[in-house]
Amino acid sequence: QVQLVESGGGLVQAGGSLRLSCAASVRTFSRYKMGWFRQAPGKEREFVADINWSGASTYNADSVKGRFTSSRDNAKNKVNLQMNSLKPEDTAVYYCAAQEGEEFDYWGQGTQVTVSS
């Protein structure tokens, strides 16, 4: 079982930055591909970014490319999402997730990000 806890959300003005973190309670954190998703009010949850087990490979959704960067520290069981040049449309609850098999099996409780215009 993997427990994930996100932190770092908050209120920021457009153009600002936030850094989200996700702490994992699991012995073998490096086994898991990690992902970030978000859900805005009235919308479906959408993929934001992911990072492979070593951190050497990342992938971002087109909507955040060039603005968001994923990183991880396997020694600390943490994954981070650096969000720059934030836009009001980035407002959502952000979730981290862990993937061991074919799908993201474990999810955090989410952290709210609000970007004011």
Query: What's the total helix number?
Result: 0
Compute the average pLDDT: 97
Query: Helices and strands: which structural class?
Result: mainly beta
Q: Give the overall form.
A: globular
Number of strands: 11
Q: In percent terms, what proportion of residues is strand? A: over 45%
How is the secondary structure organized here?
Blueprint: E1 3-7, E2 10-13, E3 18-25, E4 33-39, E5 46-51, E6 58-60, E7 68-73, E8 78-83, E9 92-99, E10 104-107, E11 111-116
Parallel strand pairs: 2-11
Antiparallel strand pairs: 1-3, 3-8, 4-5, 4-9, 5-6, 7-8, 9-10, 9-11
Could you provide a short overview of the structure?
The protein has 117 residues and is an all-beta fold. 0% of the residues lie in helices and 54% in strands. Strands 2, 4, 5, 6, 9, 10 and 11 form a seven-stranded mixed beta sheet that branches. The protein has a four-stranded antiparallel beta sheet with strand order 1-3-8-7, with no helix packed on it.
Textual characterization of the structure:
- The protein is mostly beta strands and 117 residues long.
- The protein has strands at 3-7, 10-13, 18-25, 33-39, 46-51, 58-60, 68-73, 78-83, 92-99, 104-107, 111-116.
- Strands 2, 4, 5, 6, 9, 10 and 11 form a seven-stranded mixed sheet that branches. A four-stranded antiparallel sheet has the order 1-3-8-7, with no helix packed on it.
- A hairpin with a 6-residue loop joins β5 (46-51) and β6 (58-60).
- It is globular, with a radius of gyration of 13 Å.
- The termini are far apart.
- The model has no long low-confidence stretch (mean pLDDT 97).
